[in-house]
Write a structure and sequence with these properties.
Elements: E1 20-24, E2 29-34, H1 39-48, E3 64-65, E4 75-79, E5 84-89, H2 96-113, E6 119-120, E7 130-135, E8 147-152, E9 183-189, H3 197-207, H4 213-216, E10 217-222, E11 227-229
Parallel strand pairs: 5-7, 6-7
Antiparallel strand pairs: 1-2, 2-4, 3-4, 5-8, 8-9, 9-10, 10-11
InterPro entries: Aim32/Apd1-like (IPR009737), Thioredoxin-like_sf (IPR036249)
Protein name: Actin patches distal protein 1
Pfam families: Suc_Fer-like
């Protein structure tokens, strides 16, 4: 899935000629210095990255993808600092309900994450915590509001994941350290309402569980168990 997001650009500019960054999931990496000219390098990196059906193994992605053309900038990667990411469908031009619900849900998620010390705003790159981002349209009107949760393996040292937790800090020059497995789970939920947010944080984000699977679960993956459902 390719999606626009409200994640800030490195220089805060909306000029597409300036380098930007991309968040690659489920690899849980931030790709820096992306410009139209090095799209092929980005595609090569995506091809090498884990997918939702890949086994849960340590990352082997390079720190830098060099360009053989000196006129084309190289791209570099670094681990995403968060333990989990919440993506909110927010494209008002496609569905007015999404444009209205996403800001409300973000405020409600923030309200429940802050007392836990887990909320991270758009410019907060402290390790751990939860990033909450807007993305462009997913799914249909009748499923709004749509929420997608990505969790690192054994996120927050609780939940269902069976692999032992290891260091996930930045290595030299932002490289992945051994033990960075990316996202273990992706959970796509529909018809999320503000009153659902507390349990969504408590059970889905922190523990990888779905509270209302019959009504809200749209799909997802679990790389630790080797299962997918879309």
């Amino acid at each position: 899935m390719l999606s626009a997001s409200n994640i800030p650009t490195p220089d805060g500019s909306s000029d597409y000629s300036n380098p930007t960054s991309a968040l690659l999931l489920p690899a849980f990496i931030v790709v820096n210095n992306v410009v139209p000219k090095n799209t092929n390098q980005l595609i090569d990196l995506i091809d090498a990255a884990p997918t939702t059906s890949s086994p849960l193994t340590e990352s082997t992605l390079p720190v830098t993808v060099l360009s053989i053309d000196p006129t084309i900038p190289s791209i570099s990667i670094k681990p995403c600092p968060h333990e989990a990411i919440i993506l909110l469908c927010s494209q008002k031009s496609r569905d007015a309900r999404c444009g209205q619900s996403a800001p409300l849900l973000r405020k409600e998620f923030e309200r429940h994450l802050r007392p836990l010390g887990l909320y991270r705003d758009l410019d907060d790159e402290r390790s751990g915590g939860v990033g909450v981002y807007f993305i462009s349209h997913v799914s249909g009107h009748k499923y709004s509001a749509n929420v997608i949760v990505y969790r690192r393996h054994n996120a927050f040292s609780r939940g269902h994941d069976s692999l032992p937790r290891q260091s996930q800090g930045d290595g030299e020059n932002g490289a992945h350290e051994a033990g960075d497995f990316g996202a273990s789970q992706g959970i796509w939920l529909a018809r999320v309402r503000p009153e659902d947010c507390e349990n969504l944080i408590r059970y889905t984000v922190l523990q990888g569980k779905v509270v209302k699977p019959e009504y809200q679960l749209r799909g997802g993956f679990d790389r630790a168990k080797g299962t997918t459902s879309w």
